[in-house]
C-alpha cells in the first residue's frame, strides 16, 4: 500500500494519528510535495493544533510559490 493510500484509508477510518503518521512519512519521502504539507496543515487544524497547522500551510505555500519566484 502506498503512503497516500495509507493516508486515505486512515481518513476513512477517522484515525487522525495514523493519517498524520502517513503524511509525515510522505513528507520525508517527498519533501518538496506541497500537497503533503497542505494535508498535514488540514489534519493539525482539525485536531486543534493551530500553530503547527499554520506552519504547515506556510511551508506548502512556499513550495507552491517557489517556481513563480524564479520566472
Describe the model:
This protein is mostly helical and 71 residues long. The chain is 80% helix and 0% strand. It is built from four helices and no strands. Helix 1 packs antiparallel against helix 2, helix 2 packs antiparallel against helix 3 and helix 3 packs antiparallel against helix 4. The longest helix is centred in the C-terminal third of the chain and has 20 residues.
Envelope shape: flat
Helix content: over 70%
Q: Count every helix, treating DSSP H or I runs of 4 or more residues as helices.
A: 4
Output the radius of gyration. 13 Å
* Largest sheet data: none
Question: Can you count the beta strands?
Answer: 0
Q: SSE order, as H and E?
A: HHHH
Spans of at least 5 consecutive residues whose pLDDT stays below 50 are none
Which structural class do you get from the secondary structure elements?
A: mainly alpha
Task: Name its key features.
single chain; 71 residues; 4 helices; 80% helix
Write the layout of secondary structure elements.
Blueprint (H helix, E strand, L loop, with lengths): L2 H10 L3 H14 L4 H13 L3 H20 L2
Quick gist of this model?
The chain has 71 residues and is mainly α. Helix content is 80%, strand content 0%.
Amino acid at each position: 500500500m502506498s503512503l497516500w493510500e495509507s493516508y486515505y484509508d486512515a481518513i476513512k477510518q477517522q484515525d487522525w494519528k495514523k493519517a498524520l503518521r502517513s503524511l509525515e512519512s510522505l513528507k520525508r519521502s517527498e519533501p518538496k510535495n506541497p500537497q503533503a504539507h497542505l494535508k498535514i496543515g488540514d489534519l493539525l487544524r482539525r485536531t486543534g493544533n493551530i500553530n503547527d497547522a499554520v506552519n504547515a500551510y506556510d511551508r506548502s505555500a512556499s513550495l507552491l510559490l517557489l517556481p513563480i519566484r524564479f520566472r
